[in-house]
Each structure stands twice: as structure tokens, then as C-alpha cells.
Amino acid sequence: MIKVCLLGAGNVATHLYKAFKSAQDVHIVQWYNRDLKKISTYKNDVTIIDDISKLSEADIYIIAVSDDAISTLSTTLPFENRLVAHTSGSVNIHDLDKKNRRGVFYPLQTFSKEVPIDFNEIPICLEALDKNDLDILTHLAEAIGSTWYKISTEQRQTLHVAAVFVNNFTNQLYRIAHEISDAKNINFEILKPLISETAKKIQEVSPYMAQTGPAKRNDKKTIKKHLKLLEKENHKAIYELLTESIKKTHGVSSPPRTRKEKSK
Amino acid sequence: MIKVCLLGAGNVATHLYKAFKSAQDVHIVQWYNRDLKKISTYKNDVTIIDDISKLSEADIYIIAVSDDAISTLSTTLPFENRLVAHTSGSVNIHDLDKKNRRGVFYPLQTFSKEVPIDFNEIPICLEALDKNDLDILTHLAEAIGSTWYKISTEQRQTLHVAAVFVNNFTNQLYRIAHEISDAKNINFEILKPLISETAKKIQEVSPYMAQTGPAKRNDKKTIKKHLKLLEKENHKAIYELLTESIKKTHGVSSPPRTRKEKSK
């Protein structure tokens, strides 16, 4: 049985609370938040506190607060030499106050408050300065059914950038497709199967092998047609930059000047 | 029973062949390709021909060849006033020779020769100049279990651009994430659940509502950190452009000059 104190009340904290609560091998000793109201819904199921000096003994303290608040919160902990882990993709493990043993427990996934999360599907990136602490982190990850990976701070920060590409930026491409379709009264539903299939394909085939389309074929006629169809400058710019990127990846790049002339 | 002649031997033609073949209400009269070798595998299951003058009578002739070849092929058809439909996302319906009745049967999906396709999952965009011809196209779409949409040429061409965004460009973002991860010896597997979830979320929630991350929060510190971590200029440029695009969508745009200064 791993005894956990959870700190914070955002999306990650709330999803971790639910996962810990339903895990057989995890006991949530306390859930701390400076504003009790945000977690008061759960007061009958777990001990909730807003006074950090009242934190009890536990095997691990999970700090799931915003990146900027992690370091400061770690200095206010009323104990020493216990395992404290944050859940951020970008904060350095050394930003945690060194009076405690330090770790990272970073679930790589997109969290929305409303959408239930299955931790079986979520890889957790673990980091610890000490082998025994890494064991505690792996046990905790396994207790909630997650696959875990030992990842250095630099690797985690790189993953965080990569996650922005495959999540935030991909989602923005969906958004642009939505805008383009709406402008011509096209039902966005038509594009959903393609969105699914694009993500599905990558589970088996590398993105390099999965690529198709006018940029990869260097089909200048279609590219020109598409650029003419796009009405917003921002959409055009993204189209041009990603087309160049695909061409570069697949070795069909044309000299920049020629390209600029052609797209005018 | 709809009698079909299929023309072409690429990915779309091959997948359509299989779908038509297994559909109860479709009979493939002939499969034409100028190079017989490409379809000779199927010679025991269907009549294959390489002489266009030998095309028999059918309810519909599906031209599934490359965009550039559609128009010319349509002029060589040895008959008049029959229904001829191409399968392209970007070719105008009027590019088909007007000696025949014209239509479009455009399956909006990414096709790889190796990956089997379930047409139940594929929306088909239909266009015809005549109501009766549209009926034939809808029957054909329904016969292979597809959902269909009546789409104008302009809408279809717009959808084709939108498809480039959600498929080719999204896949290139996956590729960049793959490159970034590889450079730091990070297993790309870690990102796959996030890729799946990002596509899955959009099936229920609009891309606007689904957005999260540093750009949407206008989290300048993280954005700066990410730009510093990115080693390739091309990756930096894409990061900056898509970050600006997200900021603009969510009304958190900062003046360009300030942004440029900050990202340095």
C-alpha cells in the first residue's frame, strides 16, 4: 500500500485523485489545496486540508499545481527528507526544494476536467534522483495501471515540446480545417473519419511512411490551387510552411525563391 | 444491381474494386487499366481489359486515375451520354468530357495500398449535374456501406484543402515530434496515446473547445523554453506560426514585435 498526499486541485490533480482513489494499492492520506472549496465535493471520501502545516506522513507527496507554483510550494512543505514529486512536463526536478527527496511523475496526456481518463492508456514519465525513490514512483504508476518510462529532465522537456506538436498544434490544424469548412457551409463531420484514420495509421506505421498528398508528391499544380483557395493569410502561411517541411523531409525541396514566385 | 466499369489501378481504384466486389448490389462489368499487369492479380475474379474501345455497357464508369489524367481519359471513352464519375478531391466536374453525363464520387480518406479500408467508415462526397445521376451515385455509395454527402465542386475542393490540413500536415507534425524525440533517444511510443486521444477528443468536442497548452494560456515562459529547446530552424518556425495561430483563435494575440523580441 502506497500512502499518498496530493497537492493541488487542477485537471491533473483531479484525475490523479480519481485514479488513486480507485487503485487498490494506493491510500490517499490527504488532499491539500489552498482553496478548500475547489475540492470540497470530495470531503466525504478523503481528508481535505487547506493548511499546509497539517500535512501528515506519507510515502510520497504529489505536487500537481501550475508550473510557476511548484517551486514555491515545495519550499513551504513542513518536513524534510521525504519523497516529493511534481507532475509537470517542463519543470526541472531541481526546482523542487532540496530539503526533500525529489521526483517527477508526469502523465503524458491531454486532460480536460469533463472527460474521464483511463490511466491504463496513459504513459507516465518518471524521474528520481535516487533508485529507491524511482521504485516508489514505478509502484505508484503501476498501481493505477499506467505504463511508465524512466525519463531524464531533458528528455521530459523535449517530450513536452513534442506533445505540443502532436496535441496543441494538431488540434489547431483541426481548428483551421473547421474554419475553412464552415466558411463554405461544409459539415465538419465529413472530416472526422479522416482525422481518426490519420491518428490510427501512426500506431502501426512511422509518420515518415504514412505521409501522402500533394507536398510529398511535389504536385505543384494542386499546391498552387490550394493556396489560391485559402482566404486567410494565416492559413496560407501555415500551408506553405508545412508543405515546405514535408518536401524537406521527403527530399523533394525546391529552392525557396522559386517556391515564393510560384505561390504568388 | 448497379453495373460498374472501373478505370485505373491506383490506391483508390484498388480499394474501390474490393468494396464493389464484396457489395451485394454491385456488379463490376470490367476493370480497365492501360497497363494490364497492375491488375492481373484479379483476372480470375473480374474481367480485366487494357483496350478502352472494348468498354461494355454499364450504369456508371468510375475513373479513378491521377488528377492530371482524368480529363484526357474521359475524352477517349468510346461512348456518349453515359454516367462517368471521377474520384478526385480537386478536379472540377466540368473537366470530364461533356459528351457523357458527369459525376463525382470522392471518398474522403487516406488510402495506402497495404492497409485494408472499411468503407463503412468513409464519407463519400457526391456531385452530379443531373438528379437521376445523383441517385445512381447515392445508390452506389450506399451499396458499399458508406455515408454520403452532396457536395458542390467548390465545397469538394475546399474539403480537399481541409483534408491536407488534418491529414498531411497533421502527419507532418507527428513526423516532427518523431524527429525531436529521436534526437534525444526518446521512445516515440510514449507519444502515441496522446496522438490517439487528440483525434478522439475531436469526435465529441469542437477543436476550439478542445484546445489546451501554452499558446492558448499565453504562457510566455513555457513558449520561450520550448523555442530554446528546438534545434532546427524549421521546427522553430512551425512552433512560432502555430502558436500565433492558436493565440489568434483564442484572442490572446500579442503584438508581433513584442513576440519576436521575446522569442529571441
TrEMBL record, chains A, B:
InterPro entries linked to this entry: 6-PGluconate_DH-like_C_sf, DUF2520, NAD(P)-bd_dom_sf, TM1727-like_C_sf
DUF2520 domain location: 122-246
Pfam families assigned: DUF2520 (PF10728)
Gene3D superfamilies (alphabetical): NAD(P)-binding Rossmann-like Domain, ProC-like, C-terminal domain
UniProt name for this protein: DUF2520 domain-containing protein
